[in-house]
From TrEMBL:
<dbReference type="InterPro" id="IPR036388">
    <property type="entry name" value="WH-like_DNA-bd_sf"/>
</dbReference>
<dbReference type="InterPro" id="IPR000838">
    <property type="entry name" value="RNA_pol_sigma70_ECF_CS"/>
</dbReference>
<dbReference type="InterPro" id="IPR014284">
    <property type="entry name" value="RNA_pol_sigma-70_dom"/>
</dbReference>
<keyword id="KW-0805">Transcription regulation</keyword>
<dbReference type="InterPro" id="IPR007630">
    <property type="entry name" value="RNA_pol_sigma70_r4"/>
</dbReference>
<comment type="similarity">
    <text>Belongs to the sigma-70 factor family. ECF subfamily.</text>
</comment>
<keyword id="KW-0731">Sigma factor</keyword>
<protein>
    <recommendedName>
        <fullName>RNA polymerase sigma factor</fullName>
    </recommendedName>
</protein>
<keyword id="KW-0238">DNA-binding</keyword>
<dbReference type="Pfam" id="PF04542">
    <property type="entry name" value="Sigma70_r2"/>
</dbReference>
<dbReference type="Pfam" id="PF04545">
    <property type="entry name" value="Sigma70_r4"/>
</dbReference>
<dbReference type="InterPro" id="IPR013324">
    <property type="entry name" value="RNA_pol_sigma_r3/r4-like"/>
</dbReference>
<dbReference type="InterPro" id="IPR013325">
    <property type="entry name" value="RNA_pol_sigma_r2"/>
</dbReference>
<feature type="domain" description="RNA polymerase sigma-70 region 4">
    <location>
        <begin position="125"/>
        <end position="173"/>
    </location>
</feature>
<dbReference type="InterPro" id="IPR007627">
    <property type="entry name" value="RNA_pol_sigma70_r2"/>
</dbReference>
<dbReference type="InterPro" id="IPR039425">
    <property type="entry name" value="RNA_pol_sigma-70-like"/>
</dbReference>
<feature type="domain" description="RNA polymerase sigma-70 region 2">
    <location>
        <begin position="21"/>
        <end position="89"/>
    </location>
</feature>
Length: 178
């Protein structure tokens, strides 16, 4: 896969590789950031932070554990959620409801993962989870929905969502390691 080769080049410090990675992944990762932050400027700032993080941590990428797009989307998701929390602490000066909707025309993270050999195993393991946990994990990790938003949508306490997803991820890890 081309992204794995780019990640290998990044790991050895090849500067051109970062531009290649940006060219192949920026639209998708911006979509992840924007879906969570609902603010174009914040999403652009977070996206820049994502690529700085990738530049510094490229040597930690392990193609045996995840595909490059999954690894990158996870970093983008985590950075976006961190920024969302940071905005919330400082009171947020922009109303979230007024952000313009931008459709991400690319495949979602689950569809990108489906192109890999890991997709079959992940699908099988997700199938072993109860329906609520299965849907919660898909919404949070492949839909880019924050735990807080998911709790509101499902009308359950935030702690319940966190526990449900944590237990589900532990089961997935056990299933995938077999």
């Amino acid at each position: 896969m081309a992204l794995v080769a780019i990640m290998d080049r990044l790991a050895i410090g090849e500067e051109n590789a970062l531009g290649d990675l940006y060219e192949h992944t920026s639209a998708k990762l911006f979509g992840v950031c924007f879906r969570i932050l609902k603010d174009r400027e914040e999403a652009e700032d977070v996206l820049q932070d994502v690529y700085l993080t990738v530049w510094r941590r490229a040597d930690r990428f392990d193609a045996e554990r995840a595909s490059p797009i999954t690894w990158l989307a996870t970093i983008a998701r985590n950075r976006s959620i961190d920024r969302l929390r940071q905005i919330g602490r400082r009171g947020g000066d922009r109303p979230m409801g007024e952000a313009e909707d931008i459709a991400d025309e690319g495949a979602d993270a689950f569809a990108a993962l489906a192109d890999s050999d890991d997709a079959r195993r992940l699908t099988e393991c997700l199938g072993t989870l109860d329906e609520r946990t299965h849907k919660s994990i898909l919404a949070a990790f492949y839909g880019g929905i924050t735990y807080e938003t998911l709790a509101e949508r499902l009308s359950v306490p935030l702690g319940t969502i966190k526990s449900r997803i944590r237990r589900g991820l532990i089961k997935l890890k056990g299933c995938l390691s077999q």
